[in-house]
Design a protein that fits this description.
Layout: E1 6-9, H1 15-26, E2 30-35, H2 39-51, E3 55-60, H3 66-80, E4 85-88, H4 103-131, E5 134-139, H5 142-146, H6 152-172, E6 177-184, H7 190-193, H8 197-204, H9 215-226, E7 237-240
Parallel strand pairs: 1-2, 1-4, 2-3, 4-5, 5-6, 6-7
Helix pairs in contact: 1-2, 1-9, 3-4, 4-6
The structure holds NADP nicotinamide-adenine-dinucleotide phosphate.
NADP nicotinamide-adenine-dinucleotide phosphate binds near residues 13, 16, 35 and 187.
Length: about 250
């Protein structure tokens, strides 16, 4: 159980982040649902959690903005008195072949997916060190490990998340803080809804378990890493990908 824990989930208005927020709240955590543009969707997640008897709040913050993340985390610590779990889930894609990829598309993906995780972690760790406890869980991706044509920016950002995870895990382990990554395969969300049926079929053929995953499968892995059961696990990558990477 995560009773009395304060959890922040970035990008929790939709998809995997939404499922993570609902799961952590179901285990007793008070969950701060972060979003960037989708205020209505974030409010729906809060309503859903409250309907199920949990505690939640919504907060807007663009994770690619260093100063905004400073204020975002500081406000949470001021309002809740502590911060126990940080899930860096916010992410975007801007796919395209390298020869046609603009600098803007490369930067946008790196700024949200990799720097976003750095920004929130940078400020959350300060509070977790004070508490001498904390859990940080970063969303990477199967393509951060294996690469993927048409996703040089996204794969680089998700490989970077793995390096960030391991470096910070080593830095903060002595303070009772664990830092781990979850690497989903192909999961049914808005992000993958853009793929054509033909592409989905060809990806499914490469998944040993045969189908795309559900956001709840990823949420279960995150909840495990946030729980007491994972107290001796840090700097690891948990693959939730139907066996794509072995
Ligand atoms: P999604 O359905 O597209 O949702 C993305 C979420 O990120 C939304 O809540 C969005 O908020 C938020 N977000 C985007 N930019 C943001 C920013 N600058 N600041 C704050 N929040 C921001 O994506 P998803 O499929 O659930 O993916 C969630 C995470 O899992 C991502 O890191 C993704 O890379 C990773 N992942 C996904 C898959 C997959 O197959 N779906 C596979 C591997 C890894 P707004 O709605 O407010 O914009």
């Amino acid at each position: 159980m995560l009773t009395e824990k304060i959890a922040v989930v970035t990008g929790a208005s939709r998809g995997i982040g939404r499922a993570i927020a609902i799961k952590l709240a179901s285990l007793g955590a008070a969950v701060i649902i972060n979003y960037n543009g989708s205020a209505d969707k974030a409010a729906e997640v809060k309503e859903e959690i409250e309907r199920l008897g949990g505690r939640a709040d919504t907060r807007q913050c663009d994770v690619s903005d260093f100063q905004a993340c400073s204020a975002f985390i500081q406000d949470i610590v001021k309002d809740y008195g502590r911060l126990d779990i940080l899930v860096n889930n916010a992410g975007i894609t801007r796919d395209g072949l390298l020869l046609k990829m603009s600098e803007e598309d490369f930067d946008a993906v790196l700024n949200t997916n990799l720097k976003g995780a750095f920004h929130t972690t940078r400020f959350a760790v300060r509070q977790m060190i004070r508490q001498r406890s904390g859990r940080i869980i970063n969303l990477s991706s199967v393509v951060g490990v294996s690469g993927n044509a048409g996703q040089a920016n996204y794969a680089a950002s998700k490989a970077g998340v793995l390096g960030l995870t391991k470096a910070v895990a080593k830095e903060v382990a002595s303070r009772g803080i664990t830092v781990n990554a979850v690497a989903p395969g192909f999961i049914e969300t808005d992000m993958t809804a853009k793929l054509t049926d033909k592409v989905k079929e060809s990806i499914s053929a490469q998944i040993p378990l045969g189908t795309f995953g559900k956001p709840e499968y990823v949420a279960d892995a995150v909840a495990f890493l946030a729980s007491d059961a994972a107290c001796y696990i840090t700097g690891q990558v948990l693959h939730v990908d139907g066996g794509m990477v072995m």
